[in-house]
Amino acid sequence: MKPLIPILLALTACAQAAIPSYKVIWNSPSQDSLDSMPLSGRLGAGANVWVQDGSVWLYLAHNGAYDEQGRLLKLGCVRLTPKDLNLGGAGFSQTLDPAIGTISITQGDFQASLWFAGETLVYESKSATPERLEVAFGTWRDKTREGIRNDMMGSKATFFGDHVKASSGGFLAFHRNAEYGIDLPGKARGQGITPESLPDMTRAVSPAPPSW
After folding, report:
1. Whole-number Å distance between alpha carbons of 143 and 122
2. Strand partners of residue 174
3. Which 3 state secondary structure label does DSSP give 34?
4. CA 137 → CA 31, 90, 116, 124, distances in Å?
5. DSSP assignment of 156-209
6. Cα–Cα dist 49/55, whole Å
7. How far apart, in Å, are the Cα atoms of 104 and each of 35, 74, 173, 174?
8. pLDDT digits over 101-124, tens only?
9. Which residues in 42-52 are b (16+ Cβ under 10 Å) and which e?
10. Which of 86, 104, 107, 82 is nearest to 95 (CA)?
């Protein structure tokens, strides 16, 4: 049998050499979130990133963010607006570099970078002169709503609002699932299904990170 280590090393070197060619470069801003770039972190963290109407927009996500109805939702939207710059104008560029897992946004002397440190999304920007940065947060679950259609069968449920607190130093946003959501075990018993066979994604335990 021929040794595998040299072959694996050769394949790794070829893959590393090919990664830079997969850069995605945009020279114009986006129209909406459909024109966004994906960015991934560890353990299911992620974001959609795009520039629209002079702002950097972020849809934040996590593959464990199920609500009390078992729906996998975005965590919310963050908007970052450089107040002294017409972002998206002449000289604009947005680049996704898969080799280092970073999205870079440049225009003139303005430079911004976004990447994940584990499950934490990091935003860093700089320019030759100080730039004021406006930060805003938006959520679809702005308040508790009752009687909302939950599925194709027409069943209705109560959807609870997010908790959002803002101050001069920043903001805090979180969602607390209801203690008692839909009685899935009861519905399962009525259909002859044992409750133990039902997966509960809202209480799923994140897998341990790999040892490597």
Report:
1. 28
2. 163
3. helix
4. 19, 27, 19, 18
5. EEEEPPPEEEEETTEEEEE----SS---HHHHHHHTT--GGGS--GGGPPPPPP
6. 11
7. 15, 23, 26, 28
8. 999 999 999 999 999 999 999 999
9. eeebbbbbbbb
10. 104
**Please, what sign has the CA dihedral across residues 84, 86, 87, 90?**
negative
Residue 178: predicted pLDDT: 77
To the question of pTM greater than 0.85 for the whole model, the response is no
Question: Tokens 């609500």 sit at which residue?
Answer: 67
User: CA 193, CA 166: separation in Å to the nearest integer?
Assistant: 45
Task: Give 64-110 pLDDT, tens digit per residue.
Answer: 888 877 788 889 999 999 998 999 999 999 999 999 999 999 999 99
Residue 59 pairs in a beta bridge with 48, 77
Check the CA dihedral 206-162-134-85 and report its sign: positive
Continuous H helices in the chain: 5-18, 184-190
